Amino acid sequence: MSFKKILKLGDPRLYKVSVAVEPSELESLETDIEILHEALMKFRALYGAGRAVAAPQIGVLKRFIYLNINKPIVLINPVLSEFSEKKIIVWDDCLCFPNLLVRVERSKKVKLSFWDMNWKEKTWMLEGDLSELIQHEYDHLDGILATMRAIDDRSFKIKI
Length: 160
Ligand SMILES: [Zn+2]
What we know:
The chain is 21% helix and 34% strand. It is α+β, with helices and mostly antiparallel strands. The N and C termini lie far apart (32 Å).
Protein backbone atom coordinates (compact mmCIF):
# COMPACT_ATOMS: atom_id res chain seq x y z
CA MET A 1 0.00 0.00 0.00
CA SER A 2 2.81 2.39 0.69
CA PHE A 3 3.90 2.74 -2.92
CA LYS A 4 2.21 6.13 -2.64
CA LYS A 5 4.44 8.75 -1.16
CA ILE A 6 4.52 12.51 -0.91
CA LEU A 7 5.10 14.03 -4.34
CA LYS A 8 7.81 16.61 -4.59
CA LEU A 9 7.69 20.13 -6.04
CA GLY A 10 7.69 19.91 -9.83
CA ASP A 11 5.64 16.71 -10.08
CA PRO A 12 2.96 17.47 -12.71
CA ARG A 13 0.24 15.80 -10.63
CA LEU A 14 0.53 18.54 -8.02
CA TYR A 15 -0.77 21.10 -10.54
CA LYS A 16 -4.01 19.24 -11.37
CA VAL A 17 -7.47 20.17 -10.12
CA SER A 18 -8.92 17.39 -7.96
CA VAL A 19 -12.46 16.01 -8.23
CA ALA A 20 -15.16 15.90 -5.52
CA VAL A 21 -15.53 12.83 -3.29
CA GLU A 22 -18.83 10.92 -3.67
CA PRO A 23 -20.57 9.51 -0.56
CA SER A 24 -20.15 5.99 -2.02
CA GLU A 25 -16.36 6.42 -1.97
CA LEU A 26 -16.10 6.97 1.80
CA GLU A 27 -14.91 3.45 2.63
CA SER A 28 -12.35 3.41 -0.13
CA LEU A 29 -10.77 6.56 1.30
CA GLU A 30 -9.57 4.66 4.38
CA THR A 31 -6.37 3.30 2.81
CA ASP A 32 -5.40 6.70 1.44
CA ILE A 33 -6.10 8.28 4.84
CA GLU A 34 -3.71 5.77 6.45
CA ILE A 35 -1.03 6.70 3.92
CA LEU A 36 -1.63 10.42 4.57
CA HIS A 37 -1.40 9.81 8.32
CA GLU A 38 1.87 7.89 7.98
CA ALA A 39 3.34 10.54 5.71
CA LEU A 40 2.40 13.31 8.13
CA MET A 41 3.87 11.47 11.14
CA LYS A 42 7.09 10.77 9.23
CA PHE A 43 7.36 14.43 8.25
CA ARG A 44 6.75 15.47 11.86
CA ALA A 45 9.46 13.14 13.14
CA LEU A 46 11.94 14.52 10.60
CA TYR A 47 11.10 18.22 10.63
CA GLY A 48 9.21 18.80 13.89
CA ALA A 49 6.23 20.31 12.03
CA GLY A 50 3.32 19.25 9.86
CA ARG A 51 -0.32 19.54 10.78
CA ALA A 52 -2.16 18.55 7.61
CA VAL A 53 -1.77 16.96 4.22
CA ALA A 54 -4.06 17.00 1.17
CA ALA A 55 -4.86 13.90 -0.92
CA PRO A 56 -3.28 15.27 -4.15
CA GLN A 57 0.07 15.37 -2.32
CA ILE A 58 0.17 11.56 -2.61
CA GLY A 59 -1.16 11.65 -6.17
CA VAL A 60 -4.81 10.96 -5.21
CA LEU A 61 -6.68 13.65 -7.14
CA LYS A 62 -9.70 13.84 -4.84
CA ARG A 63 -10.92 16.72 -2.73
CA PHE A 64 -10.06 15.76 0.83
CA ILE A 65 -7.58 16.85 3.47
CA TYR A 66 -6.20 14.95 6.44
CA LEU A 67 -5.78 17.21 9.45
CA ASN A 68 -4.10 16.13 12.67
CA ILE A 69 -3.61 18.73 15.37
CA ASN A 70 -5.00 17.35 18.63
CA LYS A 71 -6.90 14.57 16.94
CA PRO A 72 -7.27 13.31 13.38
CA ILE A 73 -10.06 14.65 11.18
CA VAL A 74 -10.79 14.33 7.48
CA LEU A 75 -12.15 17.34 5.64
CA ILE A 76 -14.11 16.12 2.63
CA ASN A 77 -15.07 18.43 -0.26
CA PRO A 78 -14.11 21.55 1.70
CA VAL A 79 -15.41 24.94 0.63
CA LEU A 80 -13.88 28.23 1.74
CA SER A 81 -15.81 31.48 1.83
CA GLU A 82 -15.99 34.81 3.62
CA PHE A 83 -12.27 35.52 3.27
CA SER A 84 -11.45 38.41 5.59
CA GLU A 85 -10.14 41.67 4.17
CA LYS A 86 -7.51 41.57 6.88
CA LYS A 87 -4.49 39.63 5.66
CA ILE A 88 -1.54 37.98 7.34
CA ILE A 89 1.90 37.41 5.88
CA VAL A 90 3.53 34.07 6.68
CA TRP A 91 6.56 32.02 5.70
CA ASP A 92 4.84 28.92 4.41
CA ASP A 93 6.26 25.45 4.05
CA CYS A 94 4.92 22.26 2.55
CA LEU A 95 5.51 18.52 2.69
CA CYS A 96 6.21 18.73 -1.05
CA PHE A 97 9.21 21.03 -0.48
CA PRO A 98 10.41 20.47 3.08
CA ASN A 99 13.52 22.62 2.82
CA LEU A 100 11.94 25.67 1.25
CA LEU A 101 10.02 28.54 2.83
CA VAL A 102 7.79 30.79 0.74
CA ARG A 103 6.41 34.12 1.90
CA VAL A 104 2.71 34.34 1.09
CA GLU A 105 -0.28 36.42 2.04
CA ARG A 106 -3.42 34.75 3.44
CA SER A 107 -6.70 35.98 4.84
CA LYS A 108 -6.69 36.22 8.62
CA LYS A 109 -10.14 34.68 8.88
CA VAL A 110 -12.08 32.35 6.65
CA LYS A 111 -15.21 30.22 6.82
CA LEU A 112 -14.75 26.50 6.14
CA SER A 113 -17.54 24.08 5.29
CA PHE A 114 -16.85 20.38 4.75
CA TRP A 115 -18.26 16.88 5.10
CA ASP A 116 -16.85 14.50 7.70
CA MET A 117 -16.35 10.70 7.51
CA ASN A 118 -20.00 10.22 8.61
CA TRP A 119 -21.02 12.45 5.72
CA LYS A 120 -22.23 15.18 8.06
CA GLU A 121 -21.77 18.73 6.91
CA LYS A 122 -19.82 20.96 9.27
CA THR A 123 -18.90 24.63 9.34
CA TRP A 124 -15.96 26.14 11.17
CA MET A 125 -14.87 29.74 11.44
CA LEU A 126 -11.09 29.78 11.21
CA GLU A 127 -8.64 32.40 12.35
CA GLY A 128 -4.87 32.89 12.33
CA ASP A 129 -2.79 29.71 12.19
CA LEU A 130 -5.65 27.42 11.32
CA SER A 131 -7.04 29.80 8.71
CA GLU A 132 -3.66 30.06 7.00
CA LEU A 133 -3.15 26.27 7.19
CA ILE A 134 -6.48 25.36 5.64
CA GLN A 135 -6.07 27.95 2.86
CA HIS A 136 -2.73 26.25 2.05
CA GLU A 137 -4.26 22.74 2.03
CA TYR A 138 -7.30 23.88 0.05
CA ASP A 139 -5.01 25.27 -2.64
CA HIS A 140 -3.60 21.75 -3.18
CA LEU A 141 -7.10 20.62 -4.25
CA ASP A 142 -7.01 23.23 -7.00
CA GLY A 143 -3.45 22.39 -8.06
CA ILE A 144 -1.98 25.52 -6.49
CA LEU A 145 1.27 25.38 -4.51
CA ALA A 146 2.56 28.03 -2.11
CA THR A 147 5.38 28.74 -4.60
CA MET A 148 2.70 30.06 -6.98
CA ARG A 149 1.49 32.50 -4.32
CA ALA A 150 4.90 33.96 -3.45
CA ILE A 151 4.53 37.68 -2.70
CA ASP A 152 7.52 38.59 -4.86
CA ASP A 153 10.70 37.09 -6.30
CA ARG A 154 12.51 37.44 -2.98
CA SER A 155 9.91 35.48 -1.05
CA PHE A 156 11.90 32.25 -1.03
CA LYS A 157 14.20 30.97 1.68
CA ILE A 158 16.06 27.67 2.11
CA LYS A 159 15.71 26.17 5.58
CA ILE A 160 18.93 25.11 7.24
ZN1 LIG B 1 1.42 21.79 1.05
